[in-house]
Structures are given as C-alpha cells and as structure tokens.
Amino acid sequence: MARTHGEARGGARRWAGWLPALIFGGWLAGCAAQGPSILTPVSPKGRAEAELFWFILAITAGVFILVELLLLYVIFRFRARDPQRIPLQIHGNNALEISWTTATAAGLAVIFAMTWRTMAATSTPPADAMPIKVIGHQWWWEFQYPTLGITTANELVIPAGQPIRATVTSADVIHSFWVPQLGGKMDAIPGRENVLWLQSDVEGTYYGQCAELCGVSHANMRLRVHIVSEAEFQRWVEAQRAPAAQPTEPLAQQGYQVFMSKACVGCHTIDGTPAQGKVGPNLTHVGSRTTIAAGLLENTPENMARWLDNPPAIKPGSRMPRLGLTPEEIQALVAYLSFLK
After folding, report:
1. SS3 helix, strand, coil % of the chain, rounded to 5?
2. Are 233 and 308 in contact (CB under 8 A)?
3. What are phi and psi of 156, to 5 degrees?
4. Strand, helix or coil at 231?
5. Which of 113, 254, 280, 289 could form an SS bridge with 332, CB 3.0 to 4.6 Å?
6. What does the pLDDT average to over 76-98?
7. Is the pLDDT of residue 3 over 80?
8. Residue 30 burial by CB count (10 A; 0-12/13-18/19+): exposed, middle or buried?
9. What is the tens place of the pLDDT at every residue in 137-154?
C-alpha cells in the first residue's frame, strides 16, 4: 500500500529527530577509538598544535551555539501570526551590519594570530636537533642518520627528550610523513627537502602513516617511531653501526648463500657483504626490527616466510616480486634474516 503524504512527512520528522543522536554517537565512538591521534600528543610541537585545535574549536563552538540560539529565538518569537503582514526589514541598518562584521573580523583575527604564533614556535627545530633524513619510497620508509652512519627502514629510533631535525624527501612520487602523536605532517616531494621537527619526552612506540595517496599500497605504507632512553639509544646505535654478523648455524649459512645467489642481492644492502642494492630496504639488522613489510606484519619467522613466498599477495603492487623460491630456500632465508640482529 502506498504511503500517504502525511505518513511520509511523519517518517521524515522521526528520522530528523534521531539524526543529532546518531551524529553525536558517531562522534563519541570516534573519540573513544584507540590509535594514534593528534589529540593525545607526546611532543612539544604536538601539544602546541593540539592546544591550537581546542582553542579554535572553542571559538567556533561558541559561535555555533550563539547562532543556533538566536535562530531558535527568532523562529519562535517572530513566527508569522498574520500571513499578510510583512516582517520588519532591517536591510540598511548600518549599526547592526557593522557590529556583526566587526565581531566576525575580530574573531578571525584572533584565530589568525594564534595560528601564526603556533606555526612560528613549531616550524624551526632547536639548534641542538639531531639530523635525520626521511625518504619515502613506494611503499616503505628509509631513515638515514648522517652523523651516526646508520641507515634503517620503517622503524625510526630516537632518544627521549632529543629534538630531531627530520629532512623529508621522496625517491619516486609524493608521499606524506605523519606521526600524529608527534605533531604535524610533512610532504615528501621528489627533488625537494622539507624540514620537520620531531621530539618526545615520553618513551614508547608511536605509529605513523603515509598521508598522501601514493599508489595502490598507500594504506600499507606504515611506520613506527620508538622513543627510548638515552642509554638504550646508545646501545642501539652501537649495534646498528656494526656490520652484519656472519652466520654460524648451517641453515642460516645456507640462507646466506641463497640471498647472495638470488635477486635479493641486487635490491638490498647488507653491510659487510657483497649485497649493496639500493632498491629495497637496508637489511643489515632486519632481525632486530619489530615489523616487516613497512609495518604490515610482526617480525616473526612465520610472517617472514609468508612475505618471502609471495610479497604482492600481502602488499598489492609490491616492488618486490614473487621470486619462485622453494620451501627449503624460504626456510633457509628466514633463518639467515632472523639472525641479522
């Protein structure tokens, strides 16, 4: 049976009544979700940006509430009782128009001033910042420590309290380096170097993501930042500076031979060996990383075997092809790569 016009209007009113509750519920669900957020900063820059966000939100929320209250007042106070009567017209009321224009301009001026101050305070790294070069690739991150002679991938390790001068660029297309809790994001553009200030006083692991659509596996281009104590960082630096250890177990030795005889040697670097490829991540100490495949998989022997068997099945469009390795070769490679601590 067809619905009457009145029933349709009643249904629309019921949906309109539920709409604010649905929107508010969705907002609460988003706030409650676990994960990296600019609203839980752990860095001086992140805190400054979060404070600016809450400040602007407070002003805009106040304007919204004021406008809605005035709108409701006008609706009920001046609703038409006589359809033939024309309401009082205020066009040309200079005092009223100047008042709301001035109030709006003043609010925008305050927001502009606060934004300018925050940008000025967070755009330039401190003079004692440690330099790190961040290079985006399809689809992984390369991290170089020029003053320490270290190159690693997908997991950035920095000491707590130490400001970092991150120089961000790209080897192929435009990417965007973003670790929400550390504040700000920076585009990685081929042929150009952009500077980003990173710092955290809180030890822990913080998650990041490429924030610029860069291809089929854009969503799989992840990273982690490990904030550690100064002592732990120095131990990490010492370990990373060392060349790759020579395997002693027979299976790992077999894996070394497989690595050097297959296409792996042409794409990856392992310091202290003939492998000096620059296409893929540096694997000198890959066994010490917590993840593989740019943060997609935990670094376990099982996951390493899955990745070596068929990379494009895990990361669509992966530049690492399926190499046709036998199960025995895969197990040997897993033993060798896991040995590289």
Report:
1. 45, 20, 35
2. no
3. -95, 125
4. helix
5. 254
6. 77
7. no
8. exposed
9. 999 999 999 999 999 999
Place of tokens 């030890």: 203
Query: 3-class DSSP state for residue 219?
Result: helix
Report the alpha-carbon distance of residue 42 to residue 201 in Å, rounded.
7
Q: What ranges make up the beta strands (E) of the chain?
A: 130-137, 140-145, 150-153, 155-159, 164-170, 175-178, 185-188, 194-198, 204-210, 222-228, 291-292, 297-298
Cα–Cα dist 55/74, whole Å = 29
- The radius of gyration of the chain's CA atoms, rounded to the nearest angstrom, is 28
Euclidean distance between CA atoms 232 and 234, whole angstroms: 5
101 CB neighbour count, 10 Å cutoff: 10
Instruction: State residue 306 phi and psi, 5-degree precision.
Output: -60, -45
Provide the Cα torsion 280, 284, 290, 294; round to 10°: -10
3-class SS of residue 85: coil
pLDDT digits (tens, 9 = 90+) for 244-257: 888 989 999 999 99
Q: Which residue carries 């500077």 as its tokens?
A: 195
**Contact, 266 vs 279, CB < 8 A?**
yes
Exposed/middle/buried for 215, CB within 10 Å: 0-12, 13-18, 19+? Answer: middle
Burial of 293 (0-12, 13-18, 19+ CB in 10 A): buried
- Looking from the CA of 151 toward its CB, the CA atoms found within 13 Å total 16
- In the block, which residue shows the tokens 């197990």? 331
**Alpha carbon distance 23, 11 (integer Å):** 18
